[in-house]
Every structure is written in C-alpha cells, then in structure tokens.
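Quarterly update from the structural biology core.
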Amino acid sequence: MKKTQIGSWITLNNPSVAEIMADAGFDWLCIDMEHSVTDYFEAQQLIMAIQSKGIKAFVRVGENNQRIIKRILDAGADGIIVPSVNSVGDAVKAVQSVKYPPIGIRGVGLARAQSYGFGFEEYKEGKAKEIVLIAQIEHINAINDLEAIMNVEGIDGTFIGPYDLSGSMGKPGMWDDDDVKKALNHYETIAKKYNKWIGFHVIQPDINLIKEKVAKGYNFIAFSLDVLFLGSKIREQLSELTLK
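Predicted structure, tokenized:
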C-alpha cells in the first residue's frame, strides 16, 4: 500500500500563490488547466514556483490530448492528471501521450524539462520514466470498465470525480441515491485491489473530511484549493469581527 499523499489544487495563475501553497507543507500541488484560465506559459511559471520549494508539481490538463500533454511535460511537470478517462482506450491514449517511444508516442522536444537541450538523455533516462499518470474516473462508463482501466500498464493511479460521475448517471449531486452510492463503493472496492494511487478531491477546507477519506483507503487526496482557502479564511475572520 502506498503512503498517503496530501496535496492541493492551484486555480489562480500567479506564481506567488503557488509559492505560498508550496511552502505550506503539502506533498504535491496540482495546477488546474481544465477549469481555470491558466495558459501554457503561466503553467510553466507555476511549475517552476512549486518545484523550487522541493515538492511535486502535477497538472490536470484540459483534455486527453497528445499535444496538450506533450507541452505540459516539456514544461517540466512531475505528473499529469487526465480528465474523463472512460475506457481502456482512453487510458492507453493517455499512457502513449506521456511515454516516449517505444512505449508511447510522445514527441521529442528540447524545453525546460530537458534543460533546454542540454540534458535530454538524462531526462529521458531519469525523470521521464518517473512521471506520474493519474486517470480521472468521472463517468459511469469508467466505473463499468474500471477493472480493465486499472490493469493498463502506465496508469499509476485513479482519481474519482463524484459529482461528474453522478451527473453521468442523470443524478447530479444526489449522493444518497442508491445507484450513486453503489458506483462509488464499486470504485473504492476495485481501486483498493491495486498498489496504485486512489484519489479524491476534498473541496471544503475541513481536515475532518480528509481523515474520513484516509479511513476509507484513499491515499492521494487533494485538500481543497487556493481560492477556497483564501475565501474561507477571509469570511471566517470577518464573521468574528465586531466593531463598536
């Protein structure tokens, strides 16, 4: 069983925010390029800020796209989280995009990851082989094909997307629905059979929710996100402020 890793989510495209988060003590941080306005240049700046503090910089790309994944890896990312991996074919496509030939089809570029052309061989034989690939499971089709997805070589873990999963079942946010609970339980049961990362994003900045997920066997947990940490603390303090 892998040791539990606690990270968080970066949605603001400012390197200072990434540095503050990276100094807080997380094991990893994930830059969100699916639900933010962060572009490629900004993503590289955030990766640099995070890695400068000695922790892993992951990126959730906007889609399972070879060109997007290639550019983010060339920017130096330590790992990729791929949304909407709904089938074995999707999982294989993600692996091929991350791995150099002969395993995959990742194109060769000389950018930050490869020391701008002065360290390609070292990168190819080192960090490129250690890149973490996480598949997001967020559709009922992925649940139905989960065993096969987990068996794809090169997939290092999965990350459940419970809201999108429930939406794909026509029951968005209906956590108490029997079918939704059954799907989530199926994910947890199957995922625990493998020595891979089992991921969940705890949105609210509440440490008790983290403990609940750890108790359920999750070992790759995103603890809230930059905007909620900021906004929650502001609201908490202002609510307690009394002025005469």
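Residues 5-240 form a domain with the TIM Barrel fold (CATH 3.20.20.60).
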